[in-house]
Amino acid sequence: MAKIKVELKDRSYDIIVGCDNLSELGELVRSEKWGRDVFIITDPLVNDLYGDLVRKGFKTKPKTLEVPRGERFKNLRVAEKLYDGLARYGAHRDSLIISLGGGVIGDLAGFVAATYMRGIDYIQVPTTLLSQVDASIGGKTGVNHPKCKNMIGAFYQPKAVFIDVSLIATLPARELRTGLAEVVKYGVIEDADFFKFLEANAHHLNTKAFENEDTKRAALKLWQTIVSESAKIKAKVVEKDEREAGLRMILNFGHTVGHAIESLTRYRAYNHGEAVSIGMVAAARIASRLRLLETDVVDRLKALLDKLGLPTEIDSLPVDKIVAALSIDKKVIGGKVNFVLPEKLAKVVIKDDVSLSVVKQALNEMGGQ
Amino acid sequence: MAKIKVELKDRSYDIIVGCDNLSELGELVRSEKWGRDVFIITDPLVNDLYGDLVRKGFKTKPKTLEVPRGERFKNLRVAEKLYDGLARYGAHRDSLIISLGGGVIGDLAGFVAATYMRGIDYIQVPTTLLSQVDASIGGKTGVNHPKCKNMIGAFYQPKAVFIDVSLIATLPARELRTGLAEVVKYGVIEDADFFKFLEANAHHLNTKAFENEDTKRAALKLWQTIVSESAKIKAKVVEKDEREAGLRMILNFGHTVGHAIESLTRYRAYNHGEAVSIGMVAAARIASRLRLLETDVVDRLKALLDKLGLPTEIDSLPVDKIVAALSIDKKVIGGKVNFVLPEKLAKVVIKDDVSLSVVKQALNEMGGQ
After folding, report:
1. Positive or negative: CA dihedral A118, A124, A130, A133
2. What is the DSSP track for A20-81?
C-alpha cells in the first residue's frame, strides 16, 4: 500500500493506493472518525460490481444513492435528485459522502458534497484507471451545462482518495487505454524516468496480462507503481496551484487539440484518453515545428502511444473544423488558445500565441484532411 | 469611510463602509484590477433605484442580470437562469460579479459566483441594513431547497463588501427594524459598550430622522458608526470560524426560537429581524431561568428592542407548536437543539441540553398561549 500526501494546508489529504483493499474502506472511515452517517453515491453498474464489497466494511450499513450511468446525467437535475435523497435520509453537516465510480460519478458526487449544507466531507473511490490517476485527485468537482462541460462546479478537496488497483483488472481494454493516455502525459510533463519506465513496460500494459492468475498478480504490482507515480505527479502539481491559476494548466498537455476533437465528434468517435493521445502528438509536433522540441522525442511519444494501442493519427477529420473548434473553445472560456508544449521530457511551456497555420501543418502531418 | 479587514489568509478582504459612495465602486474595481468583465446581479426594484448609480462609475458598462424579487426565487432554477445568462454573455473565469441587493440577492449571486466555472470573483453590495450588517459578510452563499432553507450552498468569500449607508435612508421602517435586531444581537454577544451605545441612541434609530436634510445627515453619521461596528464584530467572529464549525454559532443568538417562529408562521407574519427579536428575548429569559443571566439584562434587552419598535412578545402563538417546530429543525439538521444563551453582556454560551419545559416557561412568560 502506498500513501501519497496532497499538501494543501487545512485541506490536505492522503491518496491511498492499495490492491484488493475495497473492503477496508469502512475500517479507515471508522478509525479516522469521518462522518456520523455515510452515504454512497454510485451508478447501477458500479454498485452491482463493488457496492457490497464497500458496504461490508462498515458496521452500520451506509445508505446508497444511485444515479443513472453516463456523462449526460452529470447535470444539475441529477444533482438535485441527490440533494433530495440526502435530505430525505436526513444527511447533515457531519455526514460523509463516498463517491464510488469513475470520473462522472466523482465530479457529480464531489459537487453535491461541495454544495450540500455548504459543504460536507467526501471520499473519492475511483473505479476506473482514468479516474484513479486523474479526476479523483485535486478537488475539481462539477456538472455540465448545456453550453459547456463542467461549467458549474467548485474546487472542493476530498478527505481522502481511496484507490483499489485490482479494479483495473476488470476494465474493458478501451477503458484501460483511455487512462493510459493520462499516465503517459505525466511522464511527458514532469518525469522523464517515469516516461522511460512506461516505454520499458508498455507491452505489459494491456488486458492480456489479466487473463491468468500469475501474470495478473505481476501486472497488478506494475499497475500499483503506475497509479502511485501518476498520483504523485498529479498531487505535486495540484499542491502548487490548487485553483488552476497557472501551473496546473500544464495538466492540459494534449487537451487543447484533444478537446477540440472531442467536441467536434460530439464525444462519440473518441473517448477522452484517445482524444488526448492525438492531442499530445499534435502538441509535440507543434513544439517541434516551433523548434522547441527535438523530433526524436516526438517519435518516442508517438511510438509509446502506438504500442499502448492509442490513436496518434487523425483519420479523415477535417483540419479546418478542428481549428474552428479550437476557436469556439477560446470564445467560451473568453481567453486565448493555450498550448502546453514540451521542450524536452519533463519540461513543458505554455504558449498562447501559436499561429493557427502551424497548428494546421501539424494536424496535416497526422493525416488530417 | 471606514475600512474593516476580514482576515482569512488568501481569502482576506475589506468591508468598505461609506456614505453616498455607490458611484465610486467602478473606480475601486478598476484600481484593484478586479474582473476583465463585470456583471451585476440584482432585482428589478433595486436596479431601478441604484443600478444606474453603480453602472455610471464604470468606463465599460457592466452587463446587468435581473432576477425576480423575493425569497421564493432564491432557488436552483433561478441560479440556472443566471448561469445561462453568464454563459450567453461569455462570462469566464476572469469575470467579476457584483451582487447588488439585499440578502436574497447576495446569497443567490454569491452561490452563482461560487459555482460558475468553479468559482469566479464577486463583490457584495448590500442595499438593506440587514444585509449590510449581516448577510453580506462572511461568505455564506446558497439557495433554498423545498425541504430546507439555504440547504444548497457554499462558503465562498467575496473580494470585497462595499457598503453605502445612505441607502438606509430609503428603507421602509419595518425593513430598517429587521436589520436593527441583528445589530442589537452583536451588542449582546460581543460588545457591551456597543450595546450601551445603542441604548443611548435608540430614539434616533428610526426613519423619522430621515425626514429632513439636517437630521438626515446626523442620522447617517450615526448609522455609519452602527454599520461599521456591526461589521467589525461579524468580521471578528467569521475570522475565527470561517466554516461555522463552532464559534460562529454564537451568531445564532436569538435564531433558535426565531427560526421556529418564522417557519411556524411560514415566513409571513414576522420578518427575519422580528422573529430574531422575539428569539433573543426568549433566549435571555431561558438563560435567566437557568440562573445563567441576571434578570436586569433581560429587562434592558427587552427595553431596547421595544424602543426600536421590535416585537418582544409572542402574541397568541401556541407555545406547543413553537416547541414542535424546534424539534423539526433538530431533525432536519440531524443534531440537537442548540441555544446561544447570554451569561452577561458580551458573553454567551452554547447549550444543547436545555429542557423543553424551561423553553415553554420562557415562552409562556412572553404571552405565548
Report:
1. positive
2. S-GGGHHHHHHHHT--SSEEEEE-HHHIIIIIHHHHTT-SSPPEEEE--SSGGG-BHHHHHH
Report yes or no on B123 lying in a domain: yes
Q: B49 and B68, same structural domain?
A: yes
**Residue A160, helix vs strand vs coil:** strand
A186 and A334 in a single domain? The answer is yes
Question: What is the three-class DSSP state of B17?
Answer: strand
Beta-strand relationship, B13-18 and B2-6: antiparallel
pLDDT band of residue B73 (cuts 50, 70, 90) is very high
**Which CATH number does the domain housing residue B92 bear?**
3.40.50.1970
Percent residues over pLDDT 70 in chain A: 98
Cell of B298: 433581560
Check residue B263 and give its pLDDT.
87
Label residue A329 by pLDDT band (50, 70, 90). low
CB pair distance less than 8 Å for B334 and A90: yes
State which residues form the domain around A93. Answer: 2-168
Within a domain: B248: no
pLDDT for res B250: 96
Gap between the Cα atoms of A93 and B332, Å rounded: 11
Q: Hey, which residues of A are catalytic here?
A: 118, 140, 182, 234, 244, 248, 252, 255, 259, 272
Cβ–Cβ contact B115 with A under 8 A: yes
Do B183 and B94 reside in the same domain of the chain? Answer: no
CB atoms A333 and B155 under 8 Å: no
Nearest by CB to B152, from A115, A332, A335: name it.
A115
